[in-house]
Design a protein that fits this description.
Glutaredoxin; 2 domains; 5 strands; 52% helix; globular
Amino acid sequence: MKLYYSPGACSLSPHIVALEAGIPLEIEKVDLRAKKTASGADFVAINSKGYVPALDIGGGQVLTEGPAIVQYLADLKPESGLAPKNGTIERYRLQEALNFITAELHKSIGSLFNPAQQGEWKEFTLGLIDKRLTNLDAQLAGKDYLLGNFSVADAYLYTVLNWTRMHKIDLSKFANVTAYMARVGARPKVQEAMKAEGLLG
């Protein structure tokens, strides 16, 4: 399998999951502006959406969208405990968490990368992010990880929350979130993924 990634983008999440699950994974960097892979391939021919992550699972199949990819990887190694069994309420809680991260955090924090977002639009977005982080801080009270044990949702949440540093969003008032980020960031496989993407020295 091959994961197409851009350093620090949401593709970091499946990268972490594969390492946590012990799944061998080839990775290839993508220049998202040029839409070219490190080997010179046309990335749009690989993923017509033109963004990462994209996972080539063989047999001419390419899986896209981070929440789908991380669940696929976890289901390849159910013994890893990274995703609850399908059909259980715990699995639906995982999907609930992944949807919250996608719709409420990824889209709002990610939108700040758009240089056109200024003035009232930016202020509104920052206010929305603050509300979502307040809710998240309450969700994390008394827990090491979002769903209790480390799961694919934590790989995704950690990846998205890392973007707050780039946008100078202060997390210090969210004590549970701050402790959570330190906890996840200290995991050996998280460190390994970040080093492989050139995000750590």
